[in-house]
Amino acid sequence: MAKNPYMSAWLSAANKITNTARSQSMAAAKAEARRSQKDMVSAWFDLLTPLSSKSKGGSTRRKRTSSSTSRAKRR
Question: pTM for the complete prediction?
Answer without folding.
Answer: 0.52
